[in-house]
Amino acid sequence: MGELHILFELQQIDLKLEKLQETLKKLPVFEEFKNLKEQASTAKEVLARAEGKLQVKLTAIRSLEGLLQEAVEEHKEVQARLYGDAEQSAKELEKLEQRAAALKIQQQKQEEELLMAMEGAEELTKAVAVAKSKFNDAHQKLREKQKSGNEEISRLKEEILHYKEQRQLLSMQVAKPLLEEYDAQRQKFLGRPLAEVDKDICQGCRVSVSSMVKAKLYHPDCKINCDNCGRILLPHDQ
Description:
Blueprint: H1 3-25, H2 28-82, H3 90-171, H4 176-185, E1 194-198, E2 201-202, H5 211-217, E3 224-225, E4 232-235
Parallel strand pairs: 1-4
Antiparallel strand pairs: 1-2, 3-4
Helix pairs in contact: 1-3, 2-3
């Protein structure tokens, strides 16, 4: 295989590498992973807020239970004094009755507050369960996408490495000046500075080559450029 054909093969590998690298860069999995990560983060924040509200509500319940117990105990004491054997003056009895009535009202009020707090805690417990389920679901999807994405990324990276190794082997078989010219012209010709001539037509610009070019094209020691586009020409393998 002549140098130009080796260089043309290297060009094909470079084009494959560019396509693979662009594919890797624009893999949908990156955007999908980003969206799932945001969803998981949002679900985690919702769960944290729900758990925080539930904790506040449970603390309030414990406080209400304590206050209610104190009211119940005091009411019992007042009742014991009110109906005990000890002699009480009329004024003292009146005060005890008033205190017992006030404690009863207070107890009923605290019981209502406690009941409402417990109902609120029940609703918050359900909200926490829903938020936790959503978070677990989002987290699971994130892990699955990360796994499948890593597999896809690894496959592309392995393929890229394979072609890079091939490129290295081929570049060692091309003279440095010719390789430097190729590298310098790649951007100008959008990655295709070499073109085959097939049926007397340059496959780079689709223009017929001159008879002078055709005459030199098959000379092994001659490097010829297309008169129209300037690409390095080589004969198409039959």
